[in-house]
Amino acid sequence: MSDRPLKLLLVDQDPIFRLGLRVALEEFPYLQVVSEAETDTAVLQTLAELASQDPTSVDIVILELGNSRSIQSQQLGLQLCRQLKTQYPNLPILLLSSLQDRGLLMAAKATGVGGYCPKGTPISELVTAIQEVAAGYSHWHESGQKDTEITRRKDADKFSGFVFTQRLTKYVENLRSSGIAQIDANLAAVTAQLQTPGLTVLERAVLAGQRRELLASRWLVNHLLATPSRAQLNEQSQSRLFEELPSPPPANFSTSSAIAPSDLTQMQNAPSLLSPRALQATLFASCINKLQYPLQNITDVALEIDILRPDKKRELLYIILQKVADALDELRSSQIEMQQLSEIKNKILYDLWREATIEFFGKFSRVKVGNTFVEIVNVLLQNAGVVQVEILNKIPLVRELFAYLLFQTDLIVDNKSYIAGSFEAKEQAEILLENLLIQVANSVVQPLLNYLADVEDIKHNFYDRKLISSRQIERFRNDLSWKYRLRNYVTEPKAIFESRYELFVFAPRGIAKVSIYAPRTQELRELSGIPLFITLGLEFGDAIAPRLQSLLSFLGSGVVFVLTQIVGRGLGLIVRGILQGIGSVSLLEGKNKKL
């Protein structure tokens, strides 16, 4: 397909099989195994790391679809296929699996997998399948039998034409990317010069003219050397080869609205000038990767979602992430202006909470309470006021995050301004987005704990087994009650006085807590009652601390002087006198004995 070798990522839980496959494939000079992975989490982390270094670092994934005949193993394999095609829609996948269930293979094909070969396939046929699937074609081994000769000839002819088209497309795309990169470098330099203070009117006019010429050149290069995207080629080939299949069903946690193929193409082609949509795609892809981490709470603060099973916790966070993407799409389509975000921020958060609650619990799901059946969602939505006051309205920097994603504004966090699209801005936006997801998830669970906490159907379907007994549930609710009191009366006033926010983020070991700087002068003025008393106590402590420290230091020095210079010396003289007296007595006793 090209001069460079195809780059492969091998995914299989059997390390011996991976080693044998790697050795066999590396006998072919046009194939290169760039990495291996054993678990679904390792796959996503490996792809994220490789993509951050080079978007073209992997050409195809060779994947085992479950390592056993258990339903759970097969479903995890299908879920991994869905996640890979959602996050990396242009990345081909070839199944190399011991499973041969036709229904399972059809389900994998519907997710967007490009081909299948059973384990034990001759290496020459496997290499052919890898080349075809990597080129955007398909290769499905039916019931362990080879295709007929006529079909193979037709496929070979189609494949040759496809390869020529791919080569031409890649050559033109390389020309376009090279030209855009040079123009972007010059454009960045001219833009930086325009921001230099003290320019004369003539110098500013010349630089502005150069900038307009560069923008016009960029537009011409993009349009004159435009090529069909790889996603479009894949879509065309799949429409020809899978006409007998119905449209693939949407995944349970689809993030297609968050990470569109066009956005990923744009990110790869012009990383220095990301569009707001591409900023969103990059941010959401990173967040999806982090959702594969363990989700246990490793902070010293109780969280409402701690009561959920790990799979339910992850499911809820996926749903909220999808709802955030939907909300951003709605805001874009309504052509909202940036200054309106402050006015509708609370409405956006309320809608996120409401939609996530409905989807997570099911719109018409019912549980038995006493002798009657009640709809879960109807009960939970009645608690909107408390949820909004206690959790949603206290989520910080939501307006700044949405402005960054919608309008590509610079992100101001920790009293620093981060340029939109920069690595630092992405890191800060990740923190804000992760905290938003966790806090909205807390708001979804909070009404459940207030009204339906001890319902048996709820406990068995949602709760962690460690917290399923009535005693453990009550202890958990008491911990949350103390958290609210401590936060309202102590923790939050202290954070306001210290000009900071406490945020929750996804870390490799679980949900962690970080602190960021943020001026909160207006909130400080509005404090009253016990919170105000706490801040006054802190201020009083800060005011007297230096004087008290100096006084204690002076008193301590005096005590040390008295003990060492006066008492110590006096005690030393007394002890020495005693020892001398004892020595004289001993000497006299010795002389008397001699006499």
TrEMBL record:
One of its GO terms (biological process) is phosphorelay signal transduction system. This is Transcriptional regulator. It comes from the Bacteria. It comes from Chlorogloeopsis fritschii PCC 6912. Residues 7-134 form the Response regulatory domain. PANTHER family: HTH-TYPE TRANSCRIPTIONAL REGULATOR YHJB-RELATED (PTHR45566:SF1).
